[in-house]
Structures
1.
Amino acid sequence: KRCRFQLCSALCLQDPMPRASQNAVIPEPSSWPCRHLLFDVHEAVVLGSSQRTSSQTGGRTSSPSRETSPSRGSRGGAGGTGEPSKVIDVTVLVAGDRKLRLERFPPRGLLTWGPCFALIDVVADQFRRELIGGARVVELGCGLGLPGLLCASLGANVTVTDLPDMVGSVEYNAAACGWPQRVWKVVGGKNAGGLDVEPTDSNHKGALPKLAYEATVEELHLNENSLTFRRLTGKGPDTGSVQVKRFGGADLMQRTQERPLVDGVAGTVRTVALKWDAEDAAELLDDGGVDMILCSDCVNEPLYGHSWVELADCFEVLCGPRTSVLFSLQRRLEDGFDGFLEHLRDSGFLLHRMASQSHGGKEVLVFCARRRTASERFAELLIRRANEIVERERAKAASFRR
């Protein structure tokens, strides 16, 4: 088995599979066609959270409060060092030319645009109405998370997931695009009419109004017990600084998984660190059922082993009777994709090939999977029983002739 795996890995290396690393070069998005996105790749200084201005987030002050992934030099992770790094500005044509900004890139994984773009084309073409209607979308193994960000641009409520050391990149990019990520809720000061707020501008004169009980805010900066915020919902000043805990340790503010809608920004994005585990995936259902599951280029046995078994387990846990699972893959030697499809069929999923693209000698496939309905299961049972009867009658006829 070891010899076979080494041979398989060597063969796969003949088909270029760029992987993220400290010195990896991000391929140009133009390396693969996409009908619904336009790209502008350029060098820019990636600012830290306290440096970001409202002009960089569509007129809003929005960013992560601290560095969520280490600096990666030319890979778009300078994060306030003042050094220019690669930035990709994305125009979503199907969302009224909504602008997305990709400043951080995952520390590892495959750096291929084809499966991501093919998945985006299928989602934007055939599921746009559901997304505009506020569908709940979960992306597994999101990497850069571009399919999920596109869904949110159309109005969906999106949860993007990846390994704990990977999810920081998409969290940072989502905040850079205008979706608050580090959200806090006021849980103290109910009887006092809210929390006292200190101004962030040293030139401000006079007292600020209190931040109301149960108001939600976006974290701009957290310094020990002092939280600098931008108000999202509830009454209070638009920005300021509050204490997270009162003297004695009781909570005044708590982090929340709520992602309130923001004026002028369609959809919501929540980032969750998730290993492919059925029990952990089930926790995503605490917020309700899932309408759509996305997964791009996550089946590759030479690199990821048989982790597709755990991926399929997550599909089973998250899928309801009306859930659509959309996944894409670039075909490679001994990638294990055929075994993955057979496993899904054996688990009761119906599979439909949505798209097949070839570009530069590479083939990309997009599939849709869903659970069989009760009527489909009943029809299959009738067909199976009918086939059993036919086989028995044939056996009796053959025995009679002998």
Note: Residues 163 and 373 are 32 Å apart (CA to CA).
2.
Amino acid sequence: NMDGAIVCTPHSTHFNIGKELIAEGKRRYEEAMQKQSNGGSGEEQDYRPINVLMEKPMTTNVREAKELHDLLMHRRAVEEQ
């Protein structure tokens, strides 16, 4: 298990790595919620988000940056429900 990631790879790889990290965070969240609904502890420590530090530029174009932003905001909206 990892607690965080530092993305300092070639700029052209940032978008795909960012998408994978967001997907992993979503998977962790869904797994914790599934555990809670199945009678697990349901404690906050069951869900460990991934903290990400991504060097600039975040992506090589605006479309990719917006997609990462939208994916992250959608995930956060689901978590807050």
Note: The chain has two helices and two strands.
3.
Amino acid sequence: YFPTIGTLRSKYFPDSHRSVVMNLFGIPLNAMVVTVFLSIEKLGVQGALGVSTTALAVATLCGLKLRGLVNGEKEASESK
């Protein structure tokens, strides 16, 4: 997993911007964790798992969109 993520980061994010981009992705994740942790009494276990399921679904959709964009770029470059 981690070698694959490192390869993708180096492919899509230039070295000069990589740390900024990764930190910007970490802010919403940390906010979500703190929010769930502070409201665990209201959410309960099912609510907390619902939040993580929703986050996973959104991440899956973003990954599929990224794959579509990459495949579109490959097809465009191959047709030239």
Note: The helical segments are 2-12, 15-38, 40-79.
